[in-house]
Amino acid sequence: MGVNYWDSSYESGRVPWDPGPYDGHLPSIVADHGIAPCRVVDIGCGTGKSLVWLAEHGFDCTGIEIAPTVLEMADELARSRGVECEWLYGSFPGGFRDGAATRAIDDNSFELAIDRG
Asked: Is the predicted pLDDT of residue 101 greater than 50, yes or no?
């Protein structure tokens, strides 16, 4: 599936994988496993709802997404909720666009990785 599929799905509202306000499993996963705020990456972050929830709880969040339109939505959500997240455009694994530069993610960059779906 190409970028256009993902962008058009979000633009049309056809996103059956959308978690609602955020992935409802996150509060119990964080609490039950004693996960303290740390650097987290969400692979295929979509509109960033889960990362924004984590950022609101003190996590340092990075989202990776292949659909640029969706990253704009994620950034708008984070700003509207008063949190900062880093948004990277690209596929995983691979190189990611961060502004005008392409960079790779270091294997030791994150203490927690999430991927819903």
From this structure: no
